[in-house]
Structure formats: C-alpha cells, structure tokens
Amino acid sequence: MPGRDPLDKLRTAGDALQGRRQRLTHHFYDRPAVQVARDLLGCLLVHQIDGHERMGRIVEVEAYLGPGDLAAHTARGRTPRTRAMFGPPGHLYVYLIYGMHHCMNIVTGPEGSGTAVLLRALAPVQGLDTATNGPGRLCRAMGISMEHYGLDICGDTLWLARDQAPAPAHIVSSPRIGVDYAGPEWANRPLRFHIANHPAVSRRPRSK
User: Fold this and answer.
1) CA–CA dist 127, 143 (Å, integer)
2) What does the pLDDT read at residue 207?
3) In the predicted structure, residue 1 carries a pLDDT above the cut 70
C-alpha cells in the first residue's frame, strides 16, 4: 500500500482544482491592499516551470499599507530595494530574510503608493513536493527567487487565477507576524488574513 503524501496534512478536499481557471488581471490588483489581500484568499497561484505547473491555493496573506505603515518596507521611502513596491500593481516585490528565505509580495494600489500583499501560505494543489505553510516555504515550493523581482504577475509563466471553488466561508483577521519593530499601533493592527481553521495556515493567532 503506497504511503500517504505528507503534504495531505496541508490541504482539505475543497482545495482541489474545481472547474475552469480565470486569470486575474492588473485591474484586480489596482485597489487598496486590504481589499486585495482578502480577495486573494482562495485564489490559485500558478508557476509554469519547464513545461510543468506548480499550483497552490492561497490561504494566508498580510497587507502592507505603504509609507505610513511603519511595518512596511516602504516606510523609509523609495530605495533600490523597494523600487518594485512603488511600481505598477500586479508586479512582484521579492526580498530575502536571514539571507536565505525568499518572501513574495504582490504590489497593489496605484503606481507609487508603495503598498503590497505578502503571500504567507498555500494549500498544495498540483506539482508541489515540499511544504507551503510559511512565506519562505511557499517561495521554495513554488520556485520563487530574486530572479522574479519586479515580474509581471499577469504574464505567461507566473500568474494568479480563480476557479469555480466557493469563496472562503470565514476569514480571520489578526496582527501581522514579526512586526513588533513597527511599534504597538502598527504591530497590533489586524492586517493578517487567513482562511479559518485551514491546516496550511503558518501560525494560529494567539488567544486573547
């Protein structure tokens, strides 16, 4: 009897591809980060590599609100590192943490706003063989690196889509992870969103 796929613990029956996919357009991303973040939950992230698709369903995100948000990389203004985050919506802002883990953000709002949504976790759907619960793991599994910095997410190799799966029944909001440096006002804002009780969520909110 074949062994169970270890990634099964990160998905539910409802995460499987359902019906036809419809790609998201730039118009979808040209909105406030919070709106885009919530609407990304349940969408599919697709990366075509060497003729094969890697695909996961988004279950956890964080919104970053631009220069006024002290947790955002754009809080210090435009720099060589953050230029993509000030660019047009629907492009990638990728960065490294601890010199080894990539994090993938999708630029939102009008060009110049410096806002973005961090993808924190996926439910594995197709072509993935490593864990996807956490931003670094997500990028490793999906093959995202600094080579994708500034990439148009509406292109032919890397894109997001909706299928016929029902919208998430319940979305949980909580403070973002690892942003205590921003001070209490911004560290405590409920700008992290995830699908309630999904097994791929990277970290459960702390009980009050």
Assistant:
1) 11
2) 46
3) no
